[in-house]
Amino acid sequence: MASTIQVRVDDDLKIKSDNLFKDLGTDTTTAIRMFLTQAVAVNGFPFEIKRKAENPYAPLSEENFLQKLEESRYHAGLGMVREADDVISDMRDKYGL
Length: 97
Hints:
Elements: H1 11-23, H2 28-42, H3 62-77, H4 84-95
């Protein structure tokens, strides 16, 4: 037996999602079914949900910038540094890049 789920969404969202899933080789109904299957498989949302955090890329005031620069110099003086290649490798592993 199969059940039906009805969801109301904004017309623009429906059009954009239909186009996206078509480009990905599927349709919205299948994408929703995939979402539900993954949610059950992982026993929760199949993606990370967070509260909106402070934007780490927001412009800093000159005072905050100088403070962060001083902290960086202090840490570097203590030898608390990492090779850029190691950082990039960790990011690639973490984010699947």
